[in-house]
Specification:
383 residues; alpha/beta; CBS-domain; Tetracycline Repressor, domain 2; 3-stranded mixed beta sheet; 12 helices; 53% helix
């Protein structure tokens, strides 16, 4: 006679060293015994024993992997069982009542061989083999896979849960829609904070003030030097600004509007990259779209600013220069806002980390340069 793990909630400590002996998330492992052919002594078919064992998924895997968020409560049934046997064993274990609706089918080495719904067992013939009933077209995730990648897979498949397997194909846990929703929320929060220039993307009002300073100050310091590069354009054209004081009013408007346009595009690009809706391969398609969007938006905004510029000084040239500069810079902002995250992604860097700060610097520089260059060319009409 031999003892085989026929129905279990996840832990494979008997055959794997994935989990250290630390007290963590508690789960129940059910061991069923059966009489193997060739042995006639002892009859333990149908005997069930339950024991509680610890598993700490959070310390067993890297923080950003599927293994760190997976659940270790799942139902696994041997592939040689029929429906009647499976239902009988499941009913005999009350702990299964609130478990997910998926039933996983495994071989004698706990390798995943198929999956079926609990309702499939209820409405199928008791004599039907699980090997016939189970769906072997499996979608699985590896325990060491990045959790964002697993989130994208689960979102696309729209399943309630996905089985997590090790490198040998043995099921070690499941990741559910609830687990993924937490991941998406955490990643979205992290990206928003990074776009705002908060280092690491992890901060709250509950942390100490020195921690907040350490997270924010480095990017703010870098921003000073980048701003100096942008305003150096104004210093170069200071004679033009001195002669046309109205430019001091126009320049911040163009810089601010273009920055807002770029931030809209950056936010969209970072989000789409995070969810997997776009990739680096879509670079030219996205740039083409932002070129068209920027062209139309810039035209409308440019006309509005041209009207404001004319009303301010009753000078048509000032209005045209302001409107034209904003029009062109809006197109530039849209293209840069889409390109920077994609380029950072291609280089293996986090698109959310540096996109915002580089975008605002580039749009401010180009806005100042365009406006002051046009003003210098038509200075005689602006005095």
């Amino acid at each position: 006679m031999s003892s085989l793990p026929l129905t279990s909630f996840g832990n494979h400590a008997r055959s794997s060293n994935l989990y250290p002996s630390k007290i963590g998330r508690t789960f129940i492992r059910i061991i069923l015994c059966e009489v193997c052919s060739g042995f006639t002594t002892g009859a333990c078919s149908g005997i069930i024993s339950a024991m509680v064992e610890p598993v700490d998924t959070e310390t067993s895997f890297k923080p950003d992997t599927v293994g760190s968020i997976m659940g270790t409560a799942f139902i696994a049934i041997p592939v040689h069982f029929d429906v009647g046997q499976a239902v009988e064993k499941i009913r005999s274990v009350p702990e299964l009542a609130d478990k997910p609706a998926y039933v996983y089918v495994v071989d004698e080495l706990d390798r995943l061989r198929g999956v079926l719904f609990m309702r499939d067992l209820v409405f199928s013939s008791p004599r039907r083999p699980l090997s016939e009933l189970a769906n072997d077209n499996l979608i699985t995730v590896q325990a060491d896979m990045d959790r964002e990648e697993a989130a994208r897979i689960l979102q696309k498949t729209r399943f309630m849960a996905l089985p997590v397997v090790d490198k040998d194909g043995r099921i070690v846990g499941t990741v559910t829609a609830k687990d993924i929703s937490k991941v998406i929320q955490e990643e979205a929060t992290e990206d928003i904070l990074k776009l705002s220039g908060i280092g690491g993307g992890h901060e709250s009002f509950e942390v100490s003030f020195m921690t907040s300073v350490k997270h924010r100050l480095p990017w703010l310091t870098l921003n000073i030097f980048l701003d100096l590069a942008a305003v150096s354009v104004i210093a170069y054209f200071q004679e033009t600004v001195r002669q046309v004081i109205a430019l001091a009013v126009i320049l911040p408007i163009i810089s601010d509007m273009s920055g807002n346009v770029g931030i809209q595009t950056v936010s969209l690009a970072v989000r789409e990259l995070a969810t997997g809706d776009i990739s680096v391969r879509d670079f030219w398609r996205i740039i083409g779209k932002e070129l068209r969007v920027g062209f139309l938006n810039g035209l409308v905004l440019g006309v509005i600013l041209a009207g404001v510029g004319y009303v301010m000084q009753r000078n048509i040239f000032l209005g045209v220069i302001a409107g034209l500069a904003l029009w062109i810079n809006t197109v530039i902002a849209g293209i840069v806002g889409a390109a920077v995250p994609l380029i950072l992604k291609k280089k293996g860097l986090d698109p959310a980390t540096g996109s915002g700060i580089f975008l605002t610097t580039i749009t401010a520089f180009s806005g100042f340069f365009l406006t002051l260059t046009l003003a210098t060319l038509f200075i005689s009409h602006l005095k």
